[in-house]
């Protein structure tokens, strides 16, 4: 696993309510990476809560192109089940 540094230095804080809501959204179905706040993507990737997968674009202009989507991992599902926020 490649290590991504936090955007705010070396501290990793608990997930914000916004990041937790995005994780719940990703748990329903994979979401295009470009539709999620980059800081939230960084935090979810660093925590191992999501992974990047290639899937067809849901956007009309790029319908035949494979783009990066965020897919929840087992650790992400476990975090949501336990209810850590």
Question: What's the structural blueprint in terms of helices and strands?
Answer:
Blueprint: H1 17-28, E1 31-32, H2 38-46, E2 50-56, E3 66-72, H3 74-82
Antiparallel strand pairs: 1-3, 2-3
Q: Which word captures the global form?
A: globular
Mean pLDDT: 86
Looking at CATH, the homologous superfamily is Winged helix-like DNA-binding domain superfamily/Winged helix DNA-binding domain
Structural class: alpha+beta
Question: What are the low-pLDDT stretches, counting only 5+ consecutive residues below 50?
Answer: none
Number of strands: 3
N-to-C CA distance: 24 Å
Query: What fraction strand?
Result: 15-25%
Topology pattern, helix = H, strand = E = HEHEEH
Provide the domain count.
1
Q: What is the helix fraction of residues, given as a range?
A: 25-40%
Q: Biggest β-sheet: count, sense, barrel?
A: 3 strands, antiparallel
Cα-atom Rg, whole angstroms? 13 Å
The CATH class designation is Mainly Alpha
CATH architecture: Orthogonal Bundle
In DSSP terms (H or I, runs of 4 or more residues), the helix count works out at 3
> Any idea of the CATH topology?
Arc Repressor Mutant, subunit A
Strand order of the largest sheet: 1-3-2
């Amino acid at each position: 696993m490649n290590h991504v540094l936090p955007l705010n230095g070396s501290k990793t804080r608990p997930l914000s309510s916004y990041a937790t809501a995005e994780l719940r959204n990703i748990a329903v179905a994979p979401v295009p990476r470009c539709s999620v706040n980059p800081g939230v993507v960084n935090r979810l990737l660093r925590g191992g809560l999501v992974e990047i997968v290639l899937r067809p674009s849901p956007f009309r202009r790029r319908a035949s192109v494979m783009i990066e989507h965020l897919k929840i991992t087992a650790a992400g599902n476990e975090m949501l089940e336990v209810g850590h926020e």
